[in-house]
Amino acid sequence: MSKEQIGPLSERELELVALLSQGLSNRQIAAELYISPNTVKVHLRNIYNKLKVRSRTEATIVAVRMGWVAIDMPQSEGAAIEPKSILPEVAPDTSVPGEILLSTELARPPLARWQRIYLALSAVLVVFGLWLIWPRKTERSEPFTDRPVHASKSSLGQVSRWKALAQMPTPRGRLAVVAHQGHIYAIAGEAASGVSGAVEVYLADADSWIRGADKPTPVTNVGAVALDGKIYVPGGSVSGGQISGQLEVYDPDAGQPGVWTRAKPMPRAVFAYAIAAHEAKLYLFGGWDGSSYVPDSYRYDPQEDAWYPLDSMSTPRAFAGAGTIRDRIYVVGGYDGQTELATCEVYDPREDTWEMCPPLNAARGGAGVAVIADTLYVIGGGWESYLVENEYFSPAQGTWKTFPSPLLQEWRNLGVASNGTFLYAIGGWDGEFLAVNQAYRALYRLYMPSAIGGDSSGSAE
Fold first, then answer.
1. Rounded to an integer, what distance in angstroms lies between the CA atom of residue 213 and that of residue 180?
2. Which end of the chain has fewer beta carbons closer than 10 Å to its terminal beta carbon, N or C?
3. How many CA atoms lie within 13 A of 442 on its CB side?
4. What distance in Å separates the CA atoms of residue 268 and residue 234, rounded to the nearest whole number?
5. Would you write out the chain's pLDDT as a tens digit for each of its 461 residues?
6. Model pTM?
């Protein structure tokens, strides 16, 4: 098996393979990597799939042959063991992917009857266990739409910083999710019934949902930003796959349940764009224009009701995410029509210039992005494999780091918004449209006692 025939492993997967080669159990590997045993299982499934193998032994053997891990073999004094006598050969014409033929150059003593029975029973239990945890294959949908198929539901991991909240009333994906005045707005998207204009509002204090005014133009593959008390939702794809160039604006405070109006249409109708806000202006990047993936960038000024073209990204893409950290906007991930991307580009609104930033650890299309405390969080995404870990990036540190996901299977085209110290990850797709509403505590507030006017209460003595 050549290296080109093996899907590339991520840095975390290489770490796991190295521990696998030491004979560690799932629980021991989890302890070494500070992740849950369930996360280890999902990583193993991805590794087996990429390496075209079926077991730990086969994965280790392939890793040794590729030079990813080294195994020290004990040798008796004066004796030498040739590599070919201990490494297996891969069958060149086998019909079973990953089938391995073991070398017969090393003589082995016959197993006792009880050992053969024990191994047979162990093999049956292992096969049954793998059958229970192995993900069911789902049909891969088109880039611009999801449709329900028969699939296993995701398991919600017991991750301490994640908390399951009241579910969204209308399960859907490819929606816009935005925080405004302490509430979370879930707008439009795609549901089992088709393209939706639903507006549902999550009240964080009450852990409940209320209905807002439906969006006049039902759309999917959209995003939104909140500017000066209003929510702006540009473009999107309408029923039938057509593209809307409308910019619709929602005012939640204009009566109950709010009022929609229209602003100046987009200079170029697109959907599946990345969107961010900076200094009370809307910024829009990339997307699909009906014929191609585009690198175009635009700024919308609500005060002038005008759109302005900006310098383009270096990478044409859609299904990317964007977030603003201080005076710069980070655009990460996406899909270019061929593959998912780990690309990270950062835009300077004052200079109208782009530069590259460190790429994601894993390519992600259809991820949700939000910012808390100068840290960019990227949640979900992934059409080509399950991504069981999310990522965050701090420009001050300059590196991407991972944090757990509460869903242990695919989770894409969700909406993510930050509200206070929490990230809210809502809806999406996992073989079916999701109503999930998960909150991640990104920060903990610490209240320190202080002495006021000579009062020493709260002091530590």
1. 15
2. C
3. 26
4. 11
5. 443 344 567 778 888 888 887 878 888 888 888 777 777 877 888 888 778 777 787 788 777 777 776 655 444 444 343 333 333 333 333 333 333 333 333 344 566 666 666 666 666 665 555 555 444 444 445 687 776 543 334 444 445 799 999 999 999 999 999 999 999 999 999 999 999 999 999 999 999 999 999 999 999 999 999 999 999 999 999 988 899 999 999 999 998 899 999 999 999 999 999 999 999 999 999 999 999 999 999 999 999 999 999 999 999 999 999 999 999 999 999 999 999 999 999 999 999 999 999 999 999 999 999 999 999 999 999 877 778 899 999 999 999 999 999 987 789 999 999 999 999 999 999 889 999 999 999 987 655 555 444 443 333 32
6. 0.69
Cα–Cα distances in angstroms (integers) from residue 170 to residues 166, 187, 271, 358, 426, in the given order: 12, 10, 22, 37, 11
Q: Give the total residue count for the chain.
A: 461
Is the Cβ–Cβ distance between 296 and 268 less than 8 Å?
yes
User: In degrees rounded to 5, what are phi and psi of residue 135?
Assistant: -65, 140
Q: Position 446: which residue type?
A: L
Give the residue from 54, 87, 65, 82 showing the smallest Cα distance to 1: 65
Decide if 399 contacts 147 (C-beta within 8 A).
no
Both tokens of residue 175? Answer: 């929606």
| Sequence ranges of the domains in the chain | 3-133, 162-441
Dist CA 177 CA 172 (whole Å): 11
CA dihedral over 143, 149, 150, 156, signed as positive or negative: positive
CA distance 390 to 35: 12
CA–CA separation, 164 and 143 (whole Å): 28
Return the closest-CA partner of residue 202 out of 190, 210, 194.
210
Pick the CATH number of 3-133 from 1.10.10.400, 1.10.10.10, 3.10.450.120, 1.20.120.450: 1.10.10.10
Residue type, 324: T
CA distances to 74, 168, 180, 321, 424 from 202, rounded to whole Å, are: 62, 8, 10, 22, 10
Can you tell me whether residue 249 is helix, strand or coil?
A: strand
DSSP 387: -
b/e map of 88-109 (b: 16 or more CB within 10 Å)? bebeeeeeeebebeeeeeeeee
Query: Which CATH number is associated with domain 162-441?
Result: 2.120.10.80
What is the secondary structure of 75-123 as a DSSP string? --TT----HHHHSPEEPTT-SSTT-EEPP-SS--PPPPHHHHHHHHHHH
